[in-house]
Amino acid sequence: MDTLKNIIYLLALFFFFGQGCKETLVGSSPADSPRENFDQLWQGFDQHYSYFEIKPYSWDSLYHSYFQTIDTISSDKLLFNVLSDLLSKLSDFHVTLRSDTEFYSSPPDPGTLDKILLELKYLNNISRSSDESPFLTADIREDISYLRIDTFRGKEYLFKEIDSILENLYYKKGLILDLRSNGGGSDINSQIVMSRFADKKTLIRKIRYRNGPQHTDFSKPIFDYVEPNGFYYDKPVVLLTDRSVYSAAEDFILGMRQFPDVLVLGERTAGSSGNPATFDLPNGWIYTVPRWQILQPENDSLYENTGLIPDTLVYQTERDDIFLQDAKMDAAVRLLLQ
């Protein structure tokens, strides 16, 4: 099978570069059949996907498991269901498939952020500069500020507002930075915010790209640093996280936990580092394939699937829900008051 993979990989590269700079697996006119679309999807992941080594299924075995089913498909609906079922075995938020009428992705964890409870019980003087702003600020007590970052998607200028926000919050004793339900976006935006907490040039992650036909073929690690920039916030920060945090939001945690004044509190993150490339199938459907691995800077370990472990574990219990308490917020306030 390895020899066959090498041949397929070289042919795919020849076709890829022969078509110019479009990031697509095949040319524009292969036979449009369920078998052809299935094969192209399977090969696309086989050649580019970066996390096979930590998945519970053999990609080759899955091919043979679905082999007979493909030839019985008689509609686009059935084909989409079969391809989606194949991709679901990877349990990866960054793996997607899109047709003209349907979309598949692995559903994210709903998390523990209850915005209504926060606003009714914990937050005062809530403020957001505009509807586009990813930042929400508030007071929790006279001496503790609250900052929620809803997303890292959006234009870079929206995230540079962080300077004025942190300057306005600086007179308080400390900051609760709520990252719950943040599904990521741009790592450039996450680093814009992160750099305001950096006390020096800091290694935040290592990246390696899938670069060959074997599932274990990777480039040498690329070292990614963040440097201090903008308004420097050097007061205590408690960063809240849970299983609804993934992608560029996890990049943010990787960097933030390197800084001396930051403590990460809550639950493990989702464990999905992404950087997907987009490819076309012969029938015009679009799919995405994660193609890099992110290594934790402390020990070169992966956090895909398992998530990033916080410094302090705090879970939301049934009792907390009954008594309308946010366990992570309560724990963060106690830490900042110590």
Main attributes of the structure:
single chain, 338 residues, alpha/beta, seven-stranded mixed sheet, four-stranded antiparallel sheet, 11 helices
Please provide a written account of the structure.
The chain is of the alpha/beta class and 338 residues long. It contains eleven helices and 14 strands. Strands 3-4-5-6-9-10-14 form a seven-stranded mixed beta sheet, sandwiched between helices.
Quick overview of this protein structure:
The chain is α/β, with parallel strands linked by helices and 338 residues long. 33% of the residues lie in helices and 20% in strands.
Q: What's the assembly state of these chains? A: single chain
Read across the widest sheet, the strand sequence of neighbours is 3-4-5-6-9-10-14
Category by helix and strand content: alpha/beta
**Count of runs of 4 or more consecutive helical residues:** 11
Major β-sheet profile: 7 strands, mixed
Secondary structure layout plus pairing:
Elements lengths: L1 H17 L15 H15 L10 H12 L5 H13 L7 E3 L4 E3 L9 H8 L1 E4 L7 E7 L2 E6 L6 H4 L2 H8 L4 E5 L8 H8 L7 E8 L12 E5 L10 E5 L6 H9 L5 E5 L9 E5 L5 E5 L1 E4 L16 E2 L4 H5 L4 H11 L1
Parallel strand pairs: 5-6, 6-9, 9-10, 10-14
Antiparallel strand pairs: 1-2, 1-12, 3-4, 4-5, 7-8, 7-13, 11-12
Helix pairs in contact: 8-9
